[in-house]
Myosin light chain 5 isoform X2 (Balaenoptera acutorostrata), 131 residues
Amino acid sequence: MDQNRDGFIDKEDLKDTYASLGKTNVKDEELDAMLKEASGPINFTMFLNMFGEKLSGTDAEETILNAFKMLDSDGKGSINKDYIRRLLMSQADRMTAEEVDQMFQFSTIDAAGNLDYKALSYVLTHGEEKE
């Protein structure tokens, strides 16, 4: 979504995203309303929090956990961060190294380099880590 790759999602990024989906007649008022939903500039972390809020009403945490579990063949509750990095940067809507690094900033990663996807799923759906 960050079409200009400046680390933030702004009105032009939203317009470009809609255009890439075939919708070119989005009104500025609609885009402004979307941007006003954020409590500040929309970086990757803010976007994930907003996305998680939009998923409320569904069992988003369980859905996200199930997606991660598909990658966790040993059932350990964690996935190697380098493996996740490679997947996120090479599959589907490829993320940049900076976007992956932003995700890792609020992820729990142990000394062996394994990402705790249960904690990450919680952050994605609730906005902050449990105490």
Summary: The CA atoms of residues 17 and 89 lie 19 Å apart.
